[in-house]
Amino acid sequence: MHALLLALAFATATPSATVETGTQLVFKGNFVAEKGSAAETEKQFQLSLLITDVRPTGAGVYWALEEQGRGGWSWIHRFGQYHTGRADAEGQPTLLYERAEGTNEIQLLSPLFYRDPPLAEGTKWNEDRFDHEVTGTEKLGDATAWNVEVSNGYGLKRSMLIDQRNPLILSLKENVFIGQGEKHELRYELVSATPLDAVQAAAHVTAFDSLLALRNRLGIVPGTRDTKWNDERLSLLREQLPSVTTKITEGPLATIARDAERDA
Questions:
Q1: CA distances from 214 to 72, 151, 161, 166, 228 (A)
Q2: DSSP 8-state code for residue 15
Q3: Contact predicate 170/190, CB 8 Å
Q4: Residue 87 has pLDDT above 90, yes or no
Q5: Cα distances (angstroms) measured from residue 38 to each of 108, 215, 262
Q6: Are 100 and 113 in contact (CB under 8 A)?
Q7: Which own/partner contact pairs does 101-108 have at CB distance under 8 Å and 24+ positions apart?
Q8: Which of 214, 181, 169 is nearest to 27 (CA)?
Q9: Of 47, 48, 158, 262, which cross-links 27 as Cys (Cβ 3.0–4.6 Å)?
Q10: DSSP 8-state secondary structure symbol assigned to residue 43
Q11: pLDDT at residue number 128
């Protein structure tokens, strides 16, 4: 019931969006086990993207992540940068999901979807050992989307609603198996799309670049679960963090900046 209500809320709220340099996109979603109660197994999250360097074949992305429930990354691993089209998904966000049996990293598929030739009714292709098929269209808010199903010999892996006018996944539902073959469902949906003016976009890019540079100076590898905060790193963090966070007063990095200041 919870998943159904979440899906209905997303479907009525999905905004129209244009993928352009300076666009800020916000997605909300959840990850929940098929068995057991959602109250015990569910993780909710919000993924914010800042789009840069848009080209016909791809775009640059800065991202920031917020997680609630079942553990989560520390602030130092909740932001990053990647460019669409990389087969290794380097730099893309993951959820950290804690269970009694262990902790799993759940890959979030990039919401930007570039393909040549463009999608069309009945289009089929194979990629990464998965069969893809455009099975029809669907209205989602003000947008008309292609319904794309992804499967292999074991069954349906993922279904996506992809904007017909923009290279953007508006809605995604994915089956994820972790542990001893325990089935979980991952969902996310676009909830807001905001075109920033040049000044706003530049300020956000500067904030991301400053945090990324600080992480590099600290010598911390993104996605490292057991980050060691030794005396040298803490001293450097306390010295350089204020010059970074004082400029972050709003936007997707605001919560991360507050968490960083508290930890420092």
A1: 21, 41, 37, 34, 15
A2: P
A3: yes
A4: no
A5: 20, 35, 30
A6: no
A7: 101/179, 101/180, 102/179, 103/71, 103/225, 104/178, 104/179, 105/223, 106/31, 106/176, 106/178, 106/186, 108/47, 108/186, 108/188
A8: 169
A9: 47
A10: E
A11: 87
Query: Positive or negative, the Cα torsion across 172, 177, 179, 185?
Result: positive
Which helix (H) or strand (E) is 150 found in, with range?
strand 143-152
Place of tokens 């990095």: 253
| 3-class DSSP state of 228 | coil
Give yes or no for residue 227 having a pLDDT over 90: no
pLDDT, one tens digit per residue, over 122-162 is 999 999 899 999 999 999 888 899 999 999 988 999 999 99
- Lowest-pLDDT choice from 2-6, 23-27, 198-202, 225-229: 2-6
**Please, what is the angle between helix 198-218 and helix 231-245, to 10°?**
170
Q: Omega of the bond prior to 56 within 30 degrees of 0, cis?
A: no
What ranges in 91-225 are assigned the alpha helix state H? 198-218
- pLDDT category of residue 38 using cuts at 50, 70 and 90: confident
Give the C-alpha separation, 48 to 171, whole Å.
Answer: 15
What values do phi and psi take at 34, rounded to 5?
-65, -40
Measured from the Cβ of residue 5, the count of other Cβ atoms closer than 10 Å reads: 9
Token pair for 20: 């352009």
Contact 207, 247 (CB under 8 A): yes
